[in-house]
Amino acid sequence: MTLTYALFGLSLIIAIAYLVCITLANARTTRRLNALRSNCFVTSERGHRIRYVNASPEVRARAETN
């Protein structure tokens, strides 16, 4: 019975640690993308420099994958 509780506790700790890691990674990605969206200029399809917020969805997707 004690071994069952120990294994349950261990699996619970692992699950919580996994969720914390995912949350931290998501927060870092969100901060990076927000900085990109608010401060960045990207090159449009025609080669002109435009603000990220004014770019087409294709240009935004290309900027976020680089």
Entry keywords:
mainly alpha, 2 strands, two-stranded antiparallel ribbon, 66 residues
Overview of this structure, please?
The protein is mostly helical. It has one domain (2-65). Helices cover 71% and strands 9% of the residues. The protein has a two-stranded antiparallel sheet. The longest helix has 38 residues, at 2-39. It is rod-shaped, with a radius of gyration of 21 Å.
Q: What's the average pLDDT?
A: 85
What is the overall silhouette?
Answer: rod-shaped
Order of helices and strands: HEEH
- Span from first to last CA? 52 Å
Number of strands: 2
* Radius of gyration, in angstroms, nearest whole number: 21 Å
The description of the largest β-sheet is: 2 strands, antiparallel
Query: Fraction of residues in helices?
Result: over 70%
Task: Determine the strand fraction and express it as a percent band.
Answer: 5-15%
Number of domains: 1
Number of helices: 2
Q: Would you tell me the structural class of the helices and strands?
A: mainly alpha
Which stretches are low in confidence, meaning pLDDT under 50 for 5 or more residues running?
Answer: none
Give the spatial strand order of the biggest sheet.
1-2
